[in-house]
Each structure stands twice: as C-alpha cells, then as structure tokens.
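Per your request, structure below.
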C-alpha cells in the first residue's frame, strides 16, 4: 500500500491497519468530527471531562487520545495527563497542537499491553477508541491494572440508542450520510465506512457495563448522551486511595 492510498481497516481490527488508517486521517480528524456530529463532539468531551473530575496533582491516563483534544481538556485542571495512542500520526498531530502544555505528555501505546506500571494513575479514560481495540476486554483489564486502588474509569463510546425509531435514523445516517460527509470534508471516506461498521457491531450499554465488571471494576454505571448515540460509562477500582 502506498502512503497516498486510502487505508481501509475492517472488523478484524488488525492493529497495524487501524493505526495506519488513523495516521492517514489525523490532520483533518478534528474538523471532520465537528462536521459529522454537528458540534456535539465538544459537548461530549465536556461531559467526559466532568465525569473524570480531574484535580491538580492527579495523574491521569487518556488512552486512545488521538489528537489529544480530550487530553488538553483534562490538563486544563492542572492534573498531569498522559495522552496515549497507538497511532503515531495522531500523536504527532496532538503534540503539534497541544505540545506546549507542560502537564501533558505523549506516549505511543498498545491498549492491550500498556507500558506503565501497576497502580500508576488516579483516573483512566478512553473516548471513542475502545471500539477500535482488537481485544477490548484485555484493554479493560490493562486499564484496571494501571489504576490506583480507589481510582476512576470513564469510557465514552458510541452506543445503541434505546428508541427504535431514532436508532433506525441513526443507522441510516451512519451507513449512507456519514462517509459522504467525511469525503466532502476532505477525509478518507473509507475510514468512515469502517467507523459505521464498527459502531453497528459494537455491543450495547448493558453488555459493555458487564465487560467492565468482569475486568474487576465496581460501582459501574452509565448514562446516555444525545439520545444514546454515545454512552458515558463510569466505574471505580476497589480499595482506598493511598
């Protein structure tokens, strides 16, 4: 595959293909997201930041950080934030935009084999990226491992709208409209074909909550945003903070 040829990931979620696909869309990624979500991405990011509730002096992992928009939002609290992603192209774009923030660092990382020690972080979070991991249950266990006892988990991910009527409209939009919008925005439309497929194949809110519990987390809860287009999942690692 040549550097200019669109990289098309599939539901096999081969890490190299998924990473390569995100490398190719990195430059226009944020712009395309604004267009596709009609600006709701900013509202979802703000909700995620509130759920993480970062505090000055805490150490927070933003896994699947992409261009680090969510990481920068967390870092505004004064917490020390690590933006981790397996796409070097996305990290490079994030560092270009937000590298001036002294309390934000960038690490290339595989979600299923994190390069961090046990009990390192006060909070861990992922936004719209757990779905792209080839073994999401293992990623949830890795997040559990690197979180301090009493620490917090926040997962914001595309989900299943509860209303059958709205769910039908949403699936039509994802299948027919979203890739065309991506192409008009100057982005690899085939990447957004994959996005639609990955959303359609992703489990609903109750199933993801069960996966989180299986990984060892407690106090598992979620709330829907934008009629269930995305769901904000929260949990805690058992134990008391040191």
């Amino acid at each position: 595959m040549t550097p200019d040829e669109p990289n098309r990931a599939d539901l096999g979620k081969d890490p190299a293909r998924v990473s390569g696909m995100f490398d190719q869309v990195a430059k226009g990624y944020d712009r395309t997201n604004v267009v596709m979500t009609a600006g709701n991405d900013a509202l979802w990011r703000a909700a995620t930041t509130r759920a993480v509730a970062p505090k000055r002096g805490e150490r927070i992992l933003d896994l699947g950080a992409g261009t680090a928009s969510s990481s920068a939002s967390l870092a505004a609290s004064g917490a020390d934030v690590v933006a981790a992603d397996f796409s070097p192209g996305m990290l490079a774009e994030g560092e270009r935009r937000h590298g001036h923030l002294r309390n934000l660092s960038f690490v290339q990382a595989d979600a299923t084999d994190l390069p961090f020690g046990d009990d390192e972080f006060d909070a861990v979070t992922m936004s719209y990226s757990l779905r792209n991991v080839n073994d999401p249950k293992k990623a949830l266990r890795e997040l559990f491992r690197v979180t301090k006892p009493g620490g917090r988990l926040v997962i914001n991910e595309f989900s299943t709208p509860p209303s059958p009527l709205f769910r039908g409209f949403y699936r039509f939009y994802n299948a027919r409209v979203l890739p065309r919008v991506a192409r008009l925005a100057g982005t690899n439309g085939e990447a957004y074909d994959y996005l639609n497929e990955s959303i359609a194949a992703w489990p609903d809110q109750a199933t993801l909550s069960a996966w989180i519990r299986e990984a060892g987390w407690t106090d598992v809860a979620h709330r829907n945003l934008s009629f269930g287009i995305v769901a904000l999942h929260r949990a805690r690692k058992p134990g008391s903070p040191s």
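Residues 1-6 have pLDDT under 50 and may be disordered.

Regards,
D.
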